[in-house]
UniProtKB/TrEMBL annotation:
PROSITE patterns membership: ENGC_GTPASE, G_CP
Gene name in the database record: rsgA
Name this protein carries in UniProt: Small ribosomal subunit biogenesis GTPase RsgA
Native organism taxonomy: Bacteria, Pseudomonadati, Pseudomonadota, Gammaproteobacteria, Pseudomonadales
Subcellular location as annotated: Cytoplasm
Cofactor: Zn(2+)
Amino acid sequence: MAKRQLNRRQNWRIEKIQEERAARAAKRESRLLEELEGGDLGGEQPGLVIAHFGVQVEIEDSEGQLYRCHLRANLPTLVTGDRVVWRAGNQGHGVIVAQLPRDTELCRPDSRGQLKPVAANVDQIVIVFAPLPHPHANLIDRYLIAAEHAGIHPLLLLNKADLLDADNAPHVESLLTTYRQLGYPVLEVSAHEGDGMTALQAALDNHVSVFVGQSGVGKSSLVNSLLPGVDIRVGALSELTGKGTHTTTTARLFHFPNGGELIDSPGIREFGLVHVSRDDVEAGFIEFRDLLGHCRFRDCKHDREPGCALLQALEEGRIQPQRMASYRHILASLPEDEY
Ligand SMILES: Nc1nc2c(ncn2[C@@H]2O[C@H](COP(=O)(O)OP(=O)(O)OP(=O)(O)O)[C@@H](O)[C@H]2O)c(=O)[nH]1
Ligand SMILES: [Zn+2]
């Protein structure tokens, strides 16, 4: 009992210290903001959020110059990729005045399980897989559901094509065929050998992309090959402040040399199946699209029901058996209340 009380008191103290720290930071921030607003601010101009650092954001103006910006109190939380209106102050600082509407939002659960946006205006999710580690169709399907849920176009990318051999080729080729038949864009590259990288770059031009996929498929290798000279882990902020003590807490936006952007962070790379419902899962299987709503029973679970449009399509070969199996597997993994 005494021990539990002590723990509670310790927790309370830690929370209090953290609150005080946050309050001091907020006070410091509002003083900085007041100073800036009291000085000479330039006119309103568009900007792009490159990274987010605690209470401040780094933005880029239309000429590619970087500024450290403070946020007016009434603004929502900004994330990398957000388009904003801002005013320049002195010494590379500025004030964000407004957030422009987002086309898309990539969300992830935070440590408390609440969904939080981590990147805005991404329009392409590159789902990376490889002959090694062994690619699971089920995982690819989960990424496709997440992409559909976010309203973002997926691009399927087989990396390490140089590792294709007699053992793994049949499985990989059948995956590629499945997704091509479904109408998804599919590319094959080797980050090591450079094969297919020009086609990949062309697919990334004029898009804001993120790379996702299981550990070891070669995301870092791809990013390093596409963005030579950029150290993804460190980011470029130290050049701006000259201090180099700030690390990116969220994602960072990079420009490809010939156009197009990549938003990257470990958190985004792990982006997978966020909290989705049964309807979301069904919407993520594009071959179900014209069939849903055509079952005899309105609440059909597409399991054994008579007059099920999906089961009939499966029988007639319009739905591939491995996709149906994958759909069932994903449904079974949802929390009870969503099932
Ligand atoms: N043969 C071959 N190996 C590759 C290729 N691309 C990456 N690799 C290797 O695959 C391993 C994993 O690559 P990473 O780039 O670290 O993979 P990642 O997806 O970033 O992994 P995480 O950081 O864990 O998410 C490394 O040993 C790479 O050298 C490729 O095109 N061909
Ligand atoms: Zn049905």
